[in-house]
Amino acid sequence: MILPKPADAEGTPRTFTGIGQQVSSFIKIEKGLVIFTLKHSGKSHFRVFLMGRNGKKS
Length: 58
Hints:
- The chain has 58 residues and is largely without helices or strands.
């Protein structure tokens, strides 16, 4: 499904990188549509979780 880009889209894409079980620093995600593009070059499973302020999976 392809969604049209809103005319009032703000911000510049941000990049986070890591190896193993590294975690990015805290980021604030505003309400609304957020698109994540993820890349995996390993040979094992790849999982990503969004965590809430309380450290639990959202």
